């Protein structure tokens, strides 16, 4: 089980600083939860993940179910042991991958739309590659084509075999292109699924109830009230999160006041550097985001002077560290010229160096936000 203690609540916003206690140690919140999709932070060994000041990770149920399978991980002593990660761990429900593999892939969209687009998904529509029924989602494995079925019970069973400290209830993450009628119907199903997830739990692991409802205010509020009425240990606010940060801000402002404030709130899949203050002020205690690690693999370093693209030729003659103000070991020992050379030459160490710095940098920015909350400045 988990215990959440609020240390300081902001008088200026819904931000709060707290301590999330789990059987594998504590997390100071607000906190970034880096994404270990397949049980690893891409490009880093686990000792480097610790060194980058990471306190908690989230792994993906969908990916680990397909490969190597929860039985293999269970036999290895659970995911903590398998990865040799001894700190807190979350697993998602698989609901987001179902969206991503379904309508997300059909229409080439993620959980945030870059620009407004016409709603093209309505009641009765099904994605090409999977079938959504009242019981769950059937699809073929992208690895070997075998049929897979994922519903609330299956998701919880898999997550319990993985053995994370915090699990998420199974939901349908709707597409930003879904119209109101589709979202309304999907939400009713998601509500049945999150309730069934709670019933399926047999372990003492914490379970968060997921709030959906897309960018429709009344549906979000209804969903928050429903999740709040059940015996969850915390809440996950899921996407789609509309057309950008204004919508994310609105969604938080509609849902957070309804949720029991003594329970932790996790924002699923959001956390661009520019949005951190906004989502923390909106009341998110934790949030997972692939941005720091994925951008690193595309040559991007986050710095106090903005994003730097190490693919650019100009960095070959730049003898400064990635960020002169950063106290990470990469910035202490390497210069932009070398990292740019490694990246341009396709050396895999470039990806490790950039991933490490970006994670450390993100955690440092969030540390300072945490401090501002404690000092009453945010
Ligand atoms: Zn650094």
Automatic annotation (TrEMBL):
Cofactor dependency: Zn(2+)
Pathway noted in the entry: tRNA modification; tRNA-queuosine biosynthesis
Positions that bind substrate: 92-96, 171, 212, 239
Cofactor comment text: Binds 1 zinc ion per subunit.
Domain annotation tRNA-guanine(15) transglycosylase-like: ranges: 14-378
Substrates-to-products reaction catalysed: 7-aminomethyl-7-carbaguanine + guanosine(34) in tRNA = 7-aminomethyl-7-carbaguanosine(34) in tRNA + guanine
Region (RNA binding): 269-275, 293-297
Enzyme's top EC category: transferase
GO terms, molecular function: metal ion binding; tRNA-guanosine(34) queuine transglycosylase activity
Domain of life, source organism: Bacteria
EC number: 2.4.2.29
One Gene Ontology term, aspect cellular component: cytoplasm
Keyword Protein biosynthesis: no
Active site: 92 (proton acceptor), 288 (nucleophile)
NCBIfam families: Q_tRNA_tgt, tgt_general
Function of the protein: Catalyzes the base-exchange of a guanine (G) residue with the queuine precursor 7-aminomethyl-7-deazaguanine (PreQ1) at position 34 (anticodon wobble position) in tRNAs with GU(N) anticodons (tRNA-Asp, -Asn, -His and -Tyr). Catalysis occurs through a double-displacement mechanism. The nucleophile active site attacks the C1' of nucleotide 34 to detach the guanine base from the RNA, forming a covalent enzyme-RNA intermediate. The proton acceptor active site deprotonates the incoming PreQ1, allowing a nucleophilic attack on the C1' of the ribose to form the product.
Subunit structure: Homodimer. Within each dimer, one monomer is responsible for RNA recognition and catalysis, while the other monomer binds to the replacement base PreQ1.
Family as reported in the entry's similarity comment: Belongs to the queuine tRNA-ribosyltransferase family.
UniProt protein name: Queuine tRNA-ribosyltransferase
